[in-house]
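queue> pop job 88
queue> type: inverse folding (structure -> sequence)
queue> payload:
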């Protein structure tokens, strides 16, 4: 093989590598929350935050109150509504609107921990790493309910 052909092949491989790295940086690998998106400790912190900030409206059992338009945060309806959407979408809705009397008043950690608790309460198992606190990284995680 000539030196010119070897250089051309090496250059083509380098270009393909750069393009692959660039596309993966723009489109991070989407991961299902069924893979273990949070830790048990994070969900426990979230349960405590939920008790202080959310329970008075959404209930201890996360059932909400449809009569006064307080949505359930656990169960089939919740899972149907969020199925296929990113954890960031859920985080953003909660942060933007809750608590209803003081939206966007909690820390990023508290909102993220509450989301971890909601995932746990909906039957998703924890894993070895916490949900990431930079909200942009929550885009990597997708809610996917179990297929029956």
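queue> result:
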């Amino acid at each position: 093989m000539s030196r010119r052909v070897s250089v051309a092949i090496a250059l083509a491989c380098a270009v393909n590598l750069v393009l692959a790295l660039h596309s993966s940086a723009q489109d991070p690998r989407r991961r299902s929350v069924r893979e273990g998106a949070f830790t048990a400790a994070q969900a426990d912190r979230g349960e405590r935050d939920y008790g202080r900030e959310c329970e008075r409206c959404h209930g201890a059992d996360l059932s909400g109150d449809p009569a006064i338009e307080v949505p359930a945060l656990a169960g089939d309806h919740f899972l149907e509504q969020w199925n296929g959407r990113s954890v960031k979408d859920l985080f953003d809705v909660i942060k933007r609107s809750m608590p209803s009397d003081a939206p966007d008043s909690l820390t990023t950690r508290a909102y993220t921990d509450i989301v971890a608790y909601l995932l746990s309460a909906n039957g998703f198992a924890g894993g070895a790493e916490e949900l990431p606190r930079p909200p942009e990284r929550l885009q990597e995680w997708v809610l996917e309910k179990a297929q029956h």
